[in-house]
Amino acid sequence: MSALFSETWFSDFAKLWNTDPGLRDALAIINFSSTLAYGFLNEDSPRGFITVANGSVIGFGLYDERPLDWDLRASQKNWETWCNNGVGIIGLGIAYATRKLVFKAGNISIVIKKPALIGPFSNSFIAMGSVPRN
């Protein structure tokens, strides 16, 4: 088990992502490639990142100042709630509208305007909740 957003957590998240057809395969169809980071609202930098190429995670780790396409931030309490209870796309929309989920890089309107991203975006939160942690 690992702490949320630790290096071990990102390793486990990457493995889950690559075995989840709702993420890997759905994103491969649209040739999705990006570097995504995750962290806490009150911190200057994200905790860590994953690099996705054609739907599959090809790199991950603690944040190292690399350029980011997406940087998602929330309080630790909200991340834990979403990991423990899941969150659907409507819940994510509400979280964004109420600033519980903040995009320091990237833009949720891209997800909303491209329906092929909506399912995988929601599924990524399900995968986060499946990562064993203490």
Radius of gyration computed on alpha carbons: 13 Å
CATH architecture descriptor text: 2-Layer Sandwich
CATH superfamily: SCP2 sterol-binding domain
The main pleated sheet reads as: 5 strands, mixed
Order of helices and strands: HHEEEEHHEHH
Low-pLDDT segments, ≥5 res? none
CATH names the topology as Nonspecific Lipid-transfer Protein, Chain A
Shape verdict: globular
Top-tier CATH class: Alpha Beta
Beta-strand residue percentage: 15-25%
Helix % is: 40-55%
Counting helices, strands and paired strands, the structural category is alpha+beta
User: If helices are DSSP runs of H or I spanning 4 or more residues, what is the number of helices?
Assistant: 6
Instruction: For the record, give the distance between the C-alpha atoms at the N and C termini, rounded to a whole number.
Output: 6 Å
Q: Let me know the average pLDDT.
A: 91
Please indicate the count of domains: 1
Order of strands in the sheet with most strands: 3-2-1-4-5
Topology record:
Elements: H1 7-19, H2 24-29, E1 34-40, E2 48-53, E3 56-62, E4 70-74, H3 76-85, H4 89-97, E5 102-105, H5 108-113, H6 115-130
Parallel strand pairs: 1-4
Antiparallel strand pairs: 1-2, 2-3, 4-5
Give an account of the 3D structure.
A hairpin with a 2-residue loop joins strand 2 and strand 3. The protein has 134 residues and is an alpha+beta fold. It has six helices and five strands. Strands 3-2-1-4-5 form a five-stranded mixed sheet. The mean pLDDT is 91. The protein has a single domain (7-130), classed as SCP2 sterol-binding domain (Nonspecific Lipid-transfer Protein, Chain A).
